[in-house]
Amino acid sequence: MNYSKQDIDRFFEGKLSKKEAKDFLNWLDSSAGEDTYNTIIADIWDNEAENHELNQDKENVNIPILIESKVEENTPAHPIKKSTNKKPKLVKLFIGMAASLFLVFSVSYVFYFNSPPKESSVSPEYKLPVAIERSTPRGNKKIITLPDGSTVVLNADSKLTYGSDFATNRTITLEGEGFFDVVRDEEHPFKVITDNIATTALGTSFNIKAYDGNPGIQVTLATGKVRVENSLDHNLLEIKPGEAVYYSEDKNTFEKKNVDLSDFLSWKEGILQFEKTPLNLVIEDLERWYGVEIKIIGDKKLPEYKCSGTFKPHEYLSNVLKVLSYSVDFEYKINGNEVILEFN
Question: Do the beta carbons of residue 163 and residue 171 sit within 8 Å?
Answer without folding.
Answer: yes
